[in-house]
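Q&A FORM
Asked by: J.P.
Topic: structure of Beta-ribofuranosylaminobenzene 5'-phosphate synthase

PROVIDED:
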Amino acid sequence: MKAASAVTVNAPGRLHLGFLDPGASLGRRFGSLGLVIDGISTTLEMRLARSHNDNNDNHVNSDDDRYTAPPYASEELPRLREHIEALKRLSGRREPLDVRLRHVLPVHAGLGSGTQLALCAGHAFARLHGLDLDAAQLALALARGARSGVGVAGFEHGGLILDGGPRSATELPPVLARLPFPDEWRVLLVLDDARSGLSGPAERKAMAALPPFPQDLAAHACHLALMQILPAAAEHDFAPFARGVSELQEGIGRYFAPSQGGIYTSAAVARVLDWIGARHCAGIGQSSWGPTGFAILASHEEATHAVAAARAAGVVGPTLRLEIVKGRNAGATIIHAPGDA
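REPLIED BY: S.T.
REPLY: Here is the structure written out as tokens.
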């Protein structure tokens, strides 16, 4: 692979629609269903360092590297710097870099921000230096994808994804199925800017404290995924898809409720989704640890009607943001300028 002189990577967010067996009651742990979504993303630019005269960005300097980001994304700069340092140790390439974080997914919101930031950094670094490293190699190098393979597979291909759970701590979960998400369906995101989902040590502690996952619940989750949700998506049959997603989320949400204060992390999000679920055929749930909730609806018109009616009914709290997005059936976009070689 030839080195590039500059690289821009744009990685979409994802919804984690549920684990199939987080307790390994059937012999293999986790297994995930997830969906890549359009409209929100992380965007990173990287080139070899040179002088700049920017005055409005926040800056974090590591040796001769230069890191910039808009103020709302500045908290991600230390983590980004850690990724770049890990890549330099791995590759032995120490040239000073100019790294610009243009946009970031909401952090600790259940949208895959950590994995997408790592993969953006990894792919930009690899392309800039002509290194032949794919998403799986980069994810392992940067300690991503330990439980779910949806974020890594979504970065590469997009779509509705089912993985089989990791075989070991040094292997990514295999992708068992990847289907295009129907173009006419829509996803209503319910985001709560006042709350954050569990992450890091708190997430690990919460996972360790959970009781054994019942085998019958794991079997039912697998049946829902393989015999209802995926077939309905393949046939563009919305009603059974929506019922399957809601039922999968209900079971998983109740299992994780002791760690997150209920089926939903945010009571404000729960109020909106309960209201919509009672009045619309929709796939309702929370992505990962939240607080982001979602309602998958059959069309843009159905989604806009649900939003307008919920607002008119006064169930949308002041900390919430409601956004209608599509599923995304393509992975990240990577644009690079040719190098001198």
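FOLLOW-UP: The CA atoms of residues 44 and 246 lie 34 Å apart.
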